[in-house]
Amino acid sequence: LCLRCERIHQKIGRFSYHAYLVYKNTTTNERFKWPNYAYDVREYIKRLEGSNLGGSKKEDDPNIPKYRLDKKGQIVVKNIYNRGALKNFAEVLFPPSNQ
Questions:
Q1: CA distances for 45 relative to 36, 54, 59, 66, 76, angstroms
Q2: Alpha carbon distance 8, 1 (integer Å)
Q3: pLDDT tens, position by position, 82-98
Q4: Can you tell me the distance from the alpha carbon of 30 to that of 17, in angstroms, rounded to the nearest whole number?
Q5: What HEC string does the chain produce?
Q6: Are 74 and 39 contacting, i.e. CB atoms less than 8 angstroms apart?
Q7: pTM here?
Q8: What is d(CA 24, CA 87) in angstroms, rounded to the nearest whole number?
């Protein structure tokens, strides 16, 4: 009985994790590398703010991904593939290539 409960628990855990990935529209690889990527972007933006590069705007720089500031003023990098929970799940259940 205990082994059966453990297997059910593992399956629920895997399903929940994959549902979370679909919800955020990321892969497992992206999930683990995202903090490093976001950190690099934040550092790049800080360097740009520290050096006035001839008055160039950050919005015009193609090297900077879309980002926003949270309530604390911290830079939060946006996942450009995240279309919202319902559209993300619809994309997985009904892939555009099958339509």
A1: 14, 15, 11, 11, 11
A2: 11
A3: 889 999 999 998 988 76
A4: 14
A5: CHHHHHHHHHHHHHHHHHHHHHHHCCCHHHHHHHHHHHHHHHHHHHHHHHCCCCCCCHHHCCCCCCEEECCCCCEEECCCCCCCHHHHHHHHHCCHHHC
A6: no
A7: 0.63
A8: 11
